[in-house]
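Researcher: Let's do a round of design. I'm pasting the structure tokens now; please hold your answer until I've finished.
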């Protein structure tokens, strides 16, 4: 811990250690049970539904990474304390959670067809949140390497316990990762789209499939989307906090 850090930064450093410990713990009974139930549900869902979901995941993530549509219009924030950035991040996450909950309630009330429509919409909301958070913590998503960081954060939030460790190591050692990234023109070829899609779907399937059940769909849709945005926002904040503290530590060496 850097003695030049503010009290707030020292508190965040302690919180990050606890988060890392929780993040990397072995899968428990709840995770194993959820995986088993999700697998059973997947077996009775028509293949066309699975194909639609898989295509939506890949399509929206690719669009966010390779187009300017998701890049915030305002430039990255500079010369703000970590506490000020966290405050702005929390406000932004709160707004996106409400947006996602409203969208989930609306599509959840419509049964399986609108439930399917919710998948690409929700992924888009998630990616827009991540791009906003990147700028709040001072990183320009005009830079393709920052968009790659966004993708790793997305995967970290929605991956199984077994996959979280290598993803976290990539984020933890981002300076080393950046030096080995391929060029902007070729890095798409280095993304394991199949793994990304499967991990994302396996993580959210149980909650989102329940959204397609008549009568309870609206309530479940709002609950699921709110919770998923909360998880994503928390993971993103901690990843960007980690980078800020690492940067501060190196500057004071």
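Researcher: That's everything. Go ahead.
Model: Designed sequence:
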């Amino acid at each position: 811990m850097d003695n030049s850090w503010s009290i707030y930064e020292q508190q965040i450093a302690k919180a990050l250690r606890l988060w890392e410990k929780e993040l990397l713990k072995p899968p428990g009974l709840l995770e194993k049970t959820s995986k088993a139930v999700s697998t059973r549900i997947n077996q009775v869902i028509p293949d066309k539904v699975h194909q639609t979901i898989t295509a939506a995941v890949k399509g929206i993530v690719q669009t966010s990474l390779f187009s300017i549509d998701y890049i915030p219009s305002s430039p990255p924030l500079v010369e703000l304390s970590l506490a000020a950035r966290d405050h702005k991040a929390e406000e932004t996450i709160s707004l996106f959670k409400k947006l996602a909950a409203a969208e989930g309630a609306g599509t959840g009330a419509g049964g399986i067809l609108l439930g399917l429509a919710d998948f690409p919409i929700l992924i888009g909301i998630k990616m827009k949140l991540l791009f906003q958070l990147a700028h709040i913590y001072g990183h320009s998503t005009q830079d393709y390497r920052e968009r790659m960081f966004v993708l790793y954060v997305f995967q970290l939030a929605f991956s199984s316990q077994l996959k979280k460790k290598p993803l976290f190591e990539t984020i933890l050692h981002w300076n080393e990762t950046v030096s080995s990234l391929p060029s902007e023109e070729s890095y798409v070829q280095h993304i394991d789209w199949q793994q990304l899609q499967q991990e994302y779907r396996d993580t959210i399937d149980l909650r989102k499939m329940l959204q397609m059940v008549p009568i309870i769909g609206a309530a479940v849709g709002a609950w699921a989307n709110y919770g998923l945005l909360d998880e994503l926002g928390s993971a993103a904040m901690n990843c960007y906090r980690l980078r800020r503290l690492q940067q501060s530590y190196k500057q004071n060496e």
